[in-house]
Amino acid sequence: MRVFSGIQPTGQLHIGNYLGAIRQWLELQEKEECIFCIVDLHAITIPYNFREFQDIVLKKAIEYLACGIDPEKSIIFIQSDVKEHTELAWLLGTVCPIGDLNRMTQFKDKSKRFKNSINAGLFNYPVLMASDILLYQTDLVPVGKDQGQHVELTRSIARKFNKKFGKTFKIPKLLLPKMGAKIMSLQEPKKKMSKSALSSCLFLLDEPKVIREKIMKATTDSGKKILYNPKRKPGISNLLTIYSLFSGKSIKELEKKFENKGYGDFKKSLAKVLIKSLEPIRRKRKELLNREVYIKEILKKGAKRAQVLASSTIKEAKNNMGLT
Ligand code: AQP
User: Fold this and answer.
1) How far is ligand 1, taken at its centre, from the CA of residue 224, in Å?
2) Is residue 8 lining ligand 1, measured as CB closer than 6 Å?
3) 203 forms bridges with which residues in the sheet?
């Protein structure tokens, strides 16, 4: 099985990114052929600091590696280092109906958020994402639930292309984690935890003191019981999900453990679990920050390996379309 997934170098990684995407990657890299991409070309579709961008991208690579992505097992690279991504995006753009792009909820959300810079790149974002995935003849795309619509569009573009020009692309499958596909905001538990809403997030690199504060301040629900019921108790249900995923204990076990305890005790215990689980990531990142040359070498090697695969797909796609 070939696996492809990407993360934008925008903001810091939060536990939603980790539980929705990265944790799946860590499991998959043990048994499948994995390709992980820092999608810098996606990140420039919203306002960004171009003077610091290279540094930000490098730091994102460091965060990935600190989480446990192993360059000996997986290909890790920067999207703009493999020019085939943009080339295939143009070709796919000619088979993707505008109506489909108009329906994308991420475009609608981001157009509201960045009213003054609604650019064609933002609109075409899902076509570039389809290119990222299809270039590698991907079988599985492990992402969080918010990316489901884009993966569905990718499948539809691939089908349309294959029908029109002959079989060229594998039809990839969306892979959602059984739990944690949509981690909710700490402040507004009916909304997704999202980098752009800073107060909603617990970042992987938050210091222990900050973790404790954020968890203690997290919104809970009326009533006192620690019970999993996302409809009636969205706040505590979200925290139970996070606790379960980081501790390895089932929700049932946790409900039992905190049967006679209040929200305060539960939150203190959750903060402890998070501090312990995230500490190795913080430590590893500190070590890697001093190894810039080594990181750049990993990314360069990754891009070379990715390009071998990408160039073979683009050749076939162009050929099938009647291009040279
Ligand atoms: N809350 C979440 N729960 C589970 N998975 C999530 N992902 C994002 N948020 C959650 C998954 O993380 C991966 C990388 O996401 P991205 O870099 O494309 O960023 P994003 O989805 O734009 O992340 P944010 O935090 O939601 O940023 P903004 O504020 O820009 O919308 C993807 O697999 C995603 O599904």
Assistant:
1) 31
2) yes
3) 14
- Active-site hit among 59, 73, 170, 195: 195
Q: Which long-range contacts (CB under 8 A, 24 or more apart) does 279-284 make?
A: 279/208, 281/63, 281/66, 281/67, 281/204, 281/205, 282/66, 282/204, 282/205, 282/207, 284/65, 284/66
Catalytic (active site) residue 163: no
Is 224 designated active site?
Answer: no
pLDDT tens digits, 26-43: 999 999 999 999 999 999
Q: Which CATH architecture has domain 2-181+292-320?
A: 3-Layer(aba) Sandwich (3.40)
Closest listed residue to residue 221, CA positions, set 252, 166, 263? 263
Ranges of beta strands (E only) in the chain are 2-7, 33-38, 74-78, 140-142, 173-175
Q: CA-to-CA distance for 266 and 249, rounded, in angstroms? A: 14
Residue 211 CA: distances (Å) to CA of 204, 266, 269? 9, 14, 12
Partnered with residue 34 across adjacent β-strands are 3, 74
What confidence score (pLDDT) does residue 223 get?
Answer: 85
For the chain, give every residue range classified as CATH 1.10.240.10: 198-286
- Ligand 1 atom 13, closest CA: 17
198-286: CATH class: mainly alpha
- Global pTM reads 0.94
DSSP SS3 for 45: coil
192 among known catalytic residues:
yes
Domain with CATH 3.40.50.620 in the chain: 2-181+292-320
Q: Which residue from 25, 69, 194 has its CB within 8 A of the most atoms of ligand 1, so it is best to mutate? A: 194
Give, using CA atoms, the residue closest to atom 7 of ligand 1. Answer: 17
- Structure-token pair, residue 7: 């993360």
Distance 132 CA to ligand 1 centre (A): 17
Q: What is the pLDDT of residues 180-218, one digit of tens each?
A: 999 999 999 999 999 888 888 999 999 999 999 999 999
By three-state DSSP, how is residue 291 classified? coil
